[in-house]
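stage 2 :: seqdesign
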C-alpha cells in the first residue's frame, strides 16, 4: 500500500515536471518571438534603418561631448534624433506602422528635442545623462514590441 502511494507520487511528479518543461519550451525562453510584425516597402525600411543607425551614432557623439562637458556639441548630436529627422519620412512608413509604434516613436523624437533644448539652456552633464537614460527606455520598449519584414 505504501509502495503504491509512492509510485503514484512519482508518476505525478514526472507529470508535473513534463508540464513545467513543456511550459518553458513554449515561453520566450525557447526563442518564441512575440513581437508584432510591421511589413514595410524598401523605401520605408531603408529610412527606418538609417534613422536607427543615426540614433546610435547621435548617442555616441552625445556621450563623447558629455565627457568633455561640451553642451553645444551635445545639442548638435541629439538634434537629428528629434523631429528634424522626421522631415522626409516616406509616406508609406507612416501608413504602414501601427498606432502603438507611433505612440512610442513620436514621444521619443519629442524627448530628444527637449534634451537638445536643455543642453542649449545650460543643463548639467548629469541631468542630460539622466534624461538620455530615461528616453532610451523607449528604444527598448519599441524593439521589444515590433520587428520589421520586407514587403
Ligand atoms: C518606435 C519604435 C522604435 C524606437 C523608439 C526605436 N527603434 Fe530602433 N528599431 C525599431 C525597429 C522596428 C527596428 C528593426 C528594423 C528591422 O527589422 O530592419 C529597429 C532597429 C534598430 C537598430 C538596427 C538597425 C540596423 O542597422 O538594422 C538599431 C541600432 C536601433 N534600432 C537603435 C535604436 C535606438 C538607439 C533607439 C533609441 C534612441 C531606437 N532604436 C528607438 C524601432 C524603434
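stage 2 :: out
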Amino acid at each position: 500500500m505504501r509502495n503504491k502511494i509512492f509510485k503514484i507520487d512519482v508518476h505525478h511528479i514526472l507529470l508535473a515536471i513534463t508540464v513545467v518543461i513543456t511550459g518553458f519550451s513554449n515561453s520566450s525562453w525557447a526563442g518564441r518571438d512575440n513581437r508584432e510584425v510591421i511589413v514595410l516597402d524598401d523605401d520605408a525600411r531603408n529610412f527606418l534603418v538609417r534613422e536607427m543607425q543615426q540614433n546610435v551614432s547621435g548617442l555616441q557623439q552625445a556621450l563623447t561631448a558629455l565627457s568633455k562637458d561640451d553642451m553645444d556639441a551635445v545639442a548638435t548630436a541629439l538634434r537629428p534624433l528629434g523631429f528634424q529627422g522626421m522631415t522626409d519620412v516616406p509616406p508609406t512608413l507612416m501608413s504602414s506602422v501601427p498606432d502603438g509604434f507611433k505612440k512610442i516613436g513620436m514621444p521619443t523624437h519629442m524627448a530628444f528635442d527637449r534634451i537638445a533644448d536643455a543642453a542649449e539652456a545650460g543643463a548639467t552633464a548629469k541631468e542630460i545623462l539622466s534624461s538620455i537614460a530615461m528616453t532610451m527606455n523607449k528604444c527598448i520598449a519599441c524593439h521589444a514590441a515590433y520587428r520589421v519584414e520586407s514587403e
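stage 3 :: structure notes
- Residues 48-49, 52-53, 55-56, 59, 101, 104-105, 108, 136, 138-139, 142-143, 146-148 surround heme C (CB under 6 Å).
- The radius of gyration is 24 Å.
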